[in-house]
Amino acid sequence: MIGSHRCRRAFASLSATRASIASPTHRGLKCGAIRWPKSVSLVEVGPRDGLQNELSTVPTEVKVELIDRLAAAGCKAIEAASFVSPKWVPQMADGDQVLANLGRAPGVKYAALTPNLRGLEAALEAGADEVAVFAAASEAFSSANINCSIVESLERFKPVMEKAKVAGLPVRGYVSCVLGCPYEGRVAPGAVAEVATSLLDMGCYSVSLGDTIGAGTAGSTLVLLETLREAGVPLEKVAVHFHDTYGQALANILVALEEGITVLDTSVSGLGGCPYAPGASGNVATEDVVYMLDGMGINTGVDLDLLLDTSLYISDKLGRPPQSRVARAMLAKRS
Ligand SMILES: CC(C)(COP(=O)([O-])OP(=O)([O-])OC[C@H]1O[C@@H](n2cnc3c(N)ncnc32)[C@H](O)[C@@H]1OP(=O)([O-])[O-])[C@@H](O)C(=O)NCCC(=O)NCCSC(=O)C[C@@](C)(O)CC(=O)[O-]
């Protein structure tokens, strides 16, 4: 069975990880037999993926201040808004106002989600630096999330890609439910590879793999990435987007780094959840990822103290403590 063979390889890799971590040689690139990158790029999705699921309306000025604080903390790519139907996701209805009022720090990319041509036109009008189209590897999730089949969604994205190209706007692609679907359960890695390939073929510069319900483990993440590689998907064009529902996100990220992934989606304070993925918790917290990567000698460009201040800012506005364990530990130390 290919699956069990891959799982054995996954577990062998994990044992190797443990063995080499026990005798690290030096910070950064190399640790025993394992190669880690010198730096990774974080895509901060808190203001979009994080806030979209909040039940009470977050005021525009709070969203703007959150994004400006994230930029000041060193985040260079921030998903700031989403131009979707306000009937479907009311929390994101003020995307144009959010983008209009940002401080626009130099060198920072402010991105927006666009499900169709109308969304792209709104994003262009609002001055987004980049947009993202979002598909799924599961039919049931595609239908629940964007009200069409996977094939229909890819057709819908074609005019978006064309217009974005004319406007010179980079387009990122998402594939949701890469490690499980809230409606269908298991999702075949081959189905993920197919959708990722379609998105890259139509011109997305990168594809982010969304573990929408946070069900993945180190083993299934490894199998997924190996399947993509075998299917010819260039992993240098792949980002990972883990939710932390089962507390597996950091382990999954470690496996992804070892597989050569250098772009990670994270969310300040662990904000998040998808309105169409019942029970899914927030994205992996940016603080947790930055702390882990700092400890591995991997540069993110993000200042953990300023990030903690940002986490406390938004947590205070939402009236609850940060979900990030690192934020809670640092806070306890501060006080
Ligand atoms: C895709 C649609 C629009 C299809 O929605 P629909 O109902 O199938 O399409 P429609 O074209 O018939 O439009 C319905 C209404 O929405 C309006 N409309 C149509 N398009 C837009 C637009 N761009 N901006 C503003 N309004 C729009 C349109 O004008 C119409 O208004 P009405 O006539 O009823 O008054 C809808 O299903 C939708 O908005 N879905 C949003 C889903 C969403 O935002 N989900 C969360 C983001 S995905 C995610 O979180 C996962 C990810 C990316 O983070 C990765 C992961 O973790 O897996």
UniProtKB/TrEMBL annotation:
Classification via InterPro entries: Aldolase_TIM (IPR013785), HMGL (IPR043594), PYR_CT (IPR000891)
GO MF term (any one): metal ion binding
Catalytic reaction equation(s): (3S)-3-hydroxy-3-methylglutaryl-CoA = acetoacetate + acetyl-CoA
Pathway: Metabolic intermediate metabolism; (S)-3-hydroxy-3-methylglutaryl-CoA degradation; acetoacetate from (S)-3-hydroxy-3-methylglutaryl-CoA: step 1/1
Protein keywords: Lyase, Metal-binding
Domain of life: Eukaryota
Pfam family, one: HMGL-like
Keyword Transmembrane helix on entry: no
Domain Pyruvate carboxyltransferase: 40-308
EC number: 4.1.3.4
Record's keyword annotation contains Lyase: yes
Entries under PROSITE patterns matching the protein: PYR_CT
EC category: lyase
Protein's GO biological process: ketone body biosynthetic process; L-leucine catabolic process
Family indicated by similarity: Belongs to the HMG-CoA lyase family.
PANTHER family referenced in this protein's UniProt entry, alphabetically: HYDROXYMETHYLGLUTARYL-COA LYASE
Identification of the protein by name: hydroxymethylglutaryl-CoA lyase
Annotated organism of origin: Ectocarpus siliculosus
